[in-house]
Amino acid sequence: MTHRVLVCILFVVLLFTASACTQSESTNQLQKRTDSATLQTEKEDLDQRLENDQKSFLEFKEKLYSLSATVTLSKEKDAFRIKYEILMDDVQSEFKNVIQSFTLSPSMVNYVDTPDLINTNAHNEIVTDLKPNEYPVGLSLSRAYVLKPANDWSVNNPSYLEDMYIKISYGPDDKRTEDYWHIRAVPSPELTQYLSSKK
């Protein structure tokens, strides 16, 4: 009888420990952000920097992470959409609380049906950390814009269509690192063909 009691007690202890560890891991994975970044602050930062200090957006050079960008075209019922996407991956060290934001060339407001070109994940409430060889293996951010129906893509399709101005920030709240990049998004074959047909 004593042996059975000890076995039962040991089982309960192990079950409790496993449950506590699972809860602890879940808590660590779902940490709430406490930094001050918002959609509005990211928009103001990118807009002002693009207007007053565009040269501060550097051409991307391999750092402790990789960064790529694409632009694609999709046809929906009533309109064409052009989608921009960035991907940060292949991290070589730990990046805590990664926030991604991007905007396009201001001239793109002539071609897409929106006055606001900004996109950011600063509206997410949960922290996203990136670590080498751990999940998630990368972090992407995308936005699709509706193309205006009466676009004039003539005269050497606008080169600025591929221009993306990107901000990657990370680190503890009191010591954030902010990287500003200018990247030329790689257009999909469908987009290239569509633009050629509009010349």
From TrEMBL:
Q: Which domain of life is it from?
A: Bacteria
| Record organism | Paenibacillus taichungensis
Q: Which PROSITE patterns match?
A: PROKAR_LIPOPROTEIN (PS51257)
Which terms are listed as keywords in the entry?
Signal
**This protein's name:** Uncharacterized protein
Signal sequence, renumbered to the chain: 1-20
